Amino acid sequence: MNAKEIVWIIIAIVVIGGGWLLLRDTTPADTSPIKIGFIGPLTGDAASIGENARAAVEIAVEEVNAAGGINGRPLEVIYEDGQCNGAVASNAANKLINIDRVPVILGGACSGETSAFAGAAEQSRTVTLSYCSSAPAISQAGDYIFRDYPSDTFQGAFAAKYMTETLGTQNVAILYAKSDWGNGIKDVFRREFEEMGGNVVAEEGYEQTSRDLRSQLTKIKAANPEAVYFLGYTEASIPGLKQAKELGLNVPLFGGDAWDDSKIWTDTGPAGDEAMYSIVYAPLNEEFRIKMKDRVGTNEITICSPQAYDGVKVLSQVMEKVGTDSEAIKNELYNTIYAGGVSGDRIEFDENGDLVGANYIVKKAMNGVAEPVQ
Amino acid sequence: MDLFVQLTINGVIAGAIYALIALGFALIFGVTKFFNLAHGAVAVVGGYAAFFFLEHAGLGVLPAAALAVCVAGMVGFALHKTVFLPLRRRQATNLVLLIAALGLLTVIQALIAMFFGSQFHPLSQFAGAQEVYRIAGGAITLVQLIIIISALAVFGLLTLFLKKTKFGKAVKAIGDDEEVAQIVGINTHAIIGYVFFIGSAIAGLGGVLVGFDTGIEPTMGLSLLLKGIIAAIVGGVGSLSGAVLGAFLLGLAENLGIWHISGEWKDAIAFGILIFFLIWRPRGILPR
Question: Which end of chain B has less neighbouring CB within 10 Å, N or C?
Fold first, then answer.
């Protein structure tokens, strides 16, 4: 056997052996974690909402992983703080999109957060599922932008109807936070309320970070409204409700879903008595309540936490079916129907990526606690 | 008429809060000549120290507030000793000091958020139900009255103290020329240290009172500071009476200014005034 033959034999062995190794189905199953992003206000305005939502997401992720993950791959969430601020949320999203390269972002919470990064997410084909943003403008944000929280088109209309028909008020004043959420809901409310024959006697905005609403409230009081529609987040609402009482503004105060934060009512005490607000009806369930209590230490389930929890479940269901390609996830989301969630009996998206349908209830505060109005 | 009275009262309350921040700021600027942005953080420290003494140490309102004011003063003094003094010894420019102070503002606010959480805390829950007084058709609470009285009292006492004591003369000498003051035998570093303590304690008092009026949160330092700085610039940087005048002017302009326009323009009015003064009267109403 000469050297040439030996080389040929080695080549033959390598080719045959290599071919056999390649053709044999030996690819080990991919068990690397599937990473998705989370954006919410973990500090700053609305931090209590963001922290509570994070707890709900952690519970959902644990449940998904305990049940074997997504096709055997564990789910992992990268949490980023959006501070309820567009610029901060935009930076957070850029990091998730460009550095972590996640296929999906769960968030943002505040409408200002989601609006700020929706463009970047759409461009990079990153599926965005917001669990809390309700500003009507987000409907038009793009094909990759979804939300399992209802648009404020529903809430503004509900509030207008409730204030004219149930409370019987004809002249109302609006006090709103200058944010995508506050502006969006105010516009819908005003339009609907005036269509029903109501009269908006004053409309006062305030910077979201402002804690001194006295002059706005003074002007509202001078306009003599029968009720005030007060759209504010926790941090401005606590002093705002107190200042309204101090100034002797003794008319019903009606708020938006952001008031579903028990901190507002414990901190304002008697100044918050009789205040009312609308909130999306969430069926919840005992198991979810217990798990949340174990995690956050109180009975607190703030607005959007059920939606954040369901968001993880919806995304897992979709990725289980179509994998982690963002375009496939997007297409599948439009066809998904998720039943039996804690935020609603049925989660389904319309052609704008918005939640189809919404039910609201009204809660009223008394002695530091807000309870549903029968 | 009622509307005018109430808006004026609102303006005076806001002005008094700005005055407390501006007074300490102007005092420190008077001797160091740099923009101490950490001044806003010191006010936050005051608010949170009061919160700590009330919530965790179970102290009464008055001792808690008094201790909190001291804590804020000591933090200001410590910042001077550990950061500003070494930088100044190294002949750092005012830009370097400004950036160091901005860094301190961010770090202190972040530390407070780590220890106390970033939630909003109204301190008024520790003071019980608030008495509301009626003045000529307008409403004002006890805390708000205390804020106004404190601002005026602090201003009066401080002016008297600086006028009548040797310490005050030393402060003025350093403000005029630090090197010459050193040459004539004034221990400038020690005096500046005391000035930091006093200025920071006043800011701390502002933080505590804001806490009782509305509430505290780690990020409130920057907005308080900005309004304080605008007041100081409008009044005439480094001048105490200018700072107080500027503060009340700012508070009244902000609150009366939105009489016929929407309240969302409040901050725009404040910064509009700042730009106006920077361009047409950069030395302020009462230059030092």
Answer: N
